Amino acid sequence: MKFGIVVFPGSNCDRDMQDALQNDLKKEVIMLWHKDKDLSMFTTDDCIVLPGGFSYGDYLRCGAIARFSPMMQSVIEFANKGGKVLGVCNGFQILCESHLLPGVLLPNGQQQFVCKNSFIINDANGKALKIPVAHGDGRYYASEEVLNQLEANNQIIFRYCDEKGNIDPAYNPNGATRNIAGIRNKAGNVFGMMPHPERASNKELGNMDGLEVFRIFGMN
Fold this sequence. Notes:
Layout: E1 2-7, H1 14-24, E2 28-33, E3 47-50, H2 70-80, E4 84-88, H3 90-97, E5 104-106, E6 114-121, E7 129-135, E8 139-141, H4 144-152, E9 156-161, E10 180-184, E11 190-193, H5 209-216
Parallel strand pairs: 1-2, 1-3, 3-4, 4-11
Antiparallel strand pairs: 5-8, 6-7, 6-9, 9-10, 10-11
């Protein structure tokens, strides 16, 4: 699997993601500038990554301007053809603004930027993973109808929890509805999450739980 990482003005986790994929997962990585359009070097077996940061300075809503960049038009087409797309933090916001994923990321419930380790759990995995968060607009929200559809289709891939895996609002860093930390689309090829697995994928960082996140996405 080959990876393409889209770089927007304001991206600040693009090199972190490159380092994790290239050096920790030993994958081929191609950096993609937001003004370009060409994805012809990728097949639907590959993955395009939208990294964290503050694309276009987070003017209007987070991800709202990036959604209209030339490269994102190609990414939308790539996803609609079945190609894999992963959005982390600001990348998750862009995926929701692009309607590749349902719902929206609202300002944190406490109205403050949060930067700390959090624990998340995947129902199928059953193990709490320690993954850092760093965002001001990470509160996932969707209508009850959409939330019920996500539940019914097993599209909620991560929820915030305590270190033992108990899903408890007290350990939700942003007030996200139903403790949602990450979701996928119904087809299962587009993924979005607020926590940063690329910041927890190397023993020198003191945490390798991020590698398990990539494995759950089928990207190891």
